[in-house]
Structure formats: C-alpha cells, structure tokens
Amino acid sequence: MKIYKFNITLLVLLFVFVYTPLSWAGLNVITTTSDLASIAKEVGGSLIKVNSLVKGIQDAHFIQPKPSYIVKMNRADLLIYQGLELEVGWLPVLIEGSRNPEVRLGQRGHLDISTNISRLEVVQGTVDRSMGDIHPFGNPHYNLDPENGFIIAQSIFNKLVELDPENKGEYESNLSVFKQKLKKKISQWEKKMEPFRGAKIITYHRVWSYFAKKFGLTIVNTVEVKPGVPPTTKHLAHLTALMKHEKIDLIIQAVFYEPDFANMVADKTGAKVLTLPAFVGGYPEAQDYFSLFDTIIDNLTSNLQPSS
Ligand SMILES: [Zn+2]
Predict the structure, then answer these.
(1) For the whole model, what pTM was predicted?
(2) Please, what CATH class does the domain formed by 2-186 belong to?
(3) How far is the CA of 229 from the centre of ligand 1 (A)?
C-alpha cells in the first residue's frame, strides 16, 4: 500500500511539473459530469477552464478513474459534483489521491450541487445497502429536469464569486444570459412535450424521474429491480405482463446501459427500446445543456404516442 501511495504521489508531481501551464491565471474547475461542465462554462465564460471527468457516454455511478484524473484534481481550484452518492464509488478516492486540500469536503474548492436541489425518491427509514440501492439519499439524476439548470447555474455562480470576487460583474452577466436562454428553451420544450402529457413509459434505470416529473410522463416501472440491481427472470416476466396489460409500448434507457434486458422485454411485448443521452455528450449532437434536451425531446416526441 505504501509503495502504491508513493508511486501515485510521484506520478502527480511529474505530471504537474510537465503539464501545468504557467500563464493561466483564471480558475481551474473540475466537474464530475458533463452537464455540470456545460453549465459551468456558461457561467464562468472565459474566466475559467473547465474539465469534466465523466463522459456523457459513461455511467457516472461506475467509472474507473485514470491517473490523469488525479492530475486534473491536483491542479483544480474548484471541484463541482452532483452528489447524492452518484459519484461515491470513485470520487472520494480521487480527492484523497490528488493531495489537493482545496477540493476536500468542507473546503472552499468543494461544491456539492445536490445540497440545493429538491430531491426525488428519498428512501424512507434506514438505508440498507445489502438491498443494492445506489440512490440511498434520493435520486441523483436531477440534471434532467431543466428547471434544475437554474439552481445548478446559481450554485456555480455563488461559488465562483466567492473564489473570484473581482470578476463578479462578468459572472453576473453570464448567469443572466444563461437564465434567459434556459427560460426560453424550457417553454419551447414544454410546448413540444405537451401532447404527450400522461404517456406511460418504462425506463431501464431511474435516470428519467426528474425529466418525467417535469414533462408529465408516467414511469410505470423500471427494467432494473432497484437502482443498480439487474432484473431477475421473475421481474422481467412481471414487467412483460404489466406492459401488455397497460399497453405500454416504449422503454427508454440511457446510452450507457447494455440493451439486452430491455430488448428481451421488447421482444415479448412488441414495445420499442429507445436509447437516449442522459448527459451532455451522450449523443454527438447533445453538445451542451441546451442541445441535450433538444436531442432527448426530438427523439422522444418521434416515438411517443400523443395522449388523446
Ligand atoms: Zn442512478
């Protein structure tokens, strides 16, 4: 263990020495997810450099941190993450390994966005991890309600002003532009989704809960038994019967899940499996927080049946 730690430290120092540009005077920001990176770019503009650790095609619950992540974390002035245990499997180790006191819990360079979010699906009572639930403190996929984009942007703004008060004016103006654009886009998205209000769907993982609540879709069940727990044969049989009975013909799942289980159910029910991006970069055209929703909603509205 000691040898491992020594090697990591050496590696960090080596990379930092070789790669740290001396000319950059702005803030170095690291985000876990690409949605947070996209919004941070909008608010920080040219005053910050933003790097996202997780790609939109990856499952943020389970990633393998690379040595380069430790280097990025070591140089960061600010770490922004979604929280609610989305990144619990890998982020604490990364923070510890980075030897950067600024980004530790309780320090100025540590921002857990979830503390400002109204959570869905908070588990009541004692959390029993033997049940395999990977959303023990509520659903962490709040980035998929665009209304939460306002809260994310505001939280990032507050932190950037705290770290860099001299540039408050520029951050304020960036925040205002972002909020105006988001407000306009949300009303467009609401209009597009309106004919499908009340439509029943099945999802693979509970990635879509916030999105469904915002746009009035009903998630009747999930292909997983519980968040993070693959389906049993019994559950798949139950799901098949349920979908036939309720006449549900659409299963949606994020790009980073294996489609096998959903396809099995689709084969038996005649339903369609629609794979969607759940984060910026999940599809090539979902390049930022706005085009992410454009992409999701364009694909959904082409596949949902309008409610009568
Ligand atoms: Zn999840």
Answers:
(1) 0.91
(2) alpha beta
(3) 11
Centroid of ligand 1 to alpha carbon of 186 (angstroms): 24
111-125, 157-171, 235-249, range with the lowest pLDDT: 111-125
Length of the chain as a residue count: 308
Question: What is 189-303's CATH topology?
Answer: Rossmann fold (3.40.50)
For residue 202, how far is its CA from the centre of ligand 1 (angstroms)?
Answer: 15
The two tokens of residue 279 are 């984060």
Residue (of 19, 109, 107) closest to 68 by Cα position: 19
Cα-to-centroid distance, 123 and ligand 1 (Å): 13
How confident is the model at residue 148, as a pLDDT? 98
CA of 184 to the centre of ligand 1 (A): 28
Q: Which two tokens stand for residue 99?
A: 């030897």
| Comma-separated ranges of CATH 3.40.50.1980 domains in the chain | 2-186, 189-303
Residue 206 Cα, ligand 1 centroid: separation in angstroms?
6
**3-state SS record for 179-197:** HHHHHHHHHHHHHHHHHHC
Q: How close is the Cα of 304 to the center of ligand 1, in Å?
A: 23
Q: Read off the pLDDT of residues 162-211 as tens digits, 9 standing for 90 and up.
A: 999 999 999 999 999 999 999 999 999 999 999 999 999 999 999 999 99
Cα(78) to ligand 1 centroid in Å equals 24
pLDDT in tens, 120-149: 998 777 666 655 578 888 999 999 999 999
pLDDT tens digits, one per residue of 285-307: 999 999 999 999 999 999 998 87
User: E strand or H helix at 210, and its extent?
Assistant: helix 209-215
Distance CA 304, CA 168 (A): 44
Between the CA of 144 and the centroid of ligand 1 the distance, in Å, is: 12
What is the whole-number distance in angstroms between the Cα of residue 15 and the centre of ligand 1?
33
